């Protein structure tokens, strides 16, 4: 089973949010976690 992971970093006026996602090839499923930095 192959999977890909990626992270997005969003910066706002009050802080930053990082979204980490893991996708599994061939299933269409993905798992995401959101981390908030203040």
Query: Based on CA inertia axes, which overall geometry fits?
Result: rod-shaped
Order of SSEs, N→C? EEE
Sheet having the most strands: 3 strands, antiparallel
- Count of DSSP-assigned helices: 0
Low-confidence parts lasting 5 or more residues at pLDDT below 50?
none
Our estimate of the beta-strand percent is over 45%
Protein name: (Perigord truffle) hypothetical protein
Model description:
This is (Perigord truffle) hypothetical protein. Strand 2 (15-24) and strand 3 (29-37) form a beta hairpin. The chain is mainly β. It has a three-stranded antiparallel beta sheet, with no helix packed on it. The chain contains no helices and three strands.
Structural descriptors:
mainly beta; three-stranded antiparallel sheet; (Perigord truffle) hypothetical protein; 3 strands; 38 residues; rod-shaped
Can I get a quick summary?
With 38 residues, the chain is an all-beta fold. It has one domain (3-37). 0% of the residues lie in helices and 76% in strands.
Topology readout:
Elements: E1 3-12, E2 15-24, E3 29-37
Antiparallel strand pairs: 1-2, 2-3
């Amino acid at each position: 089973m192959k999977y890909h992971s990626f992270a997005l970093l969003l910066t706002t006026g009050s802080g930053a949010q990082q979204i980490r996602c893991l996708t599994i090839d061939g299933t269409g499923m993905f798992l995401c976690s959101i981390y908030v930095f203040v």
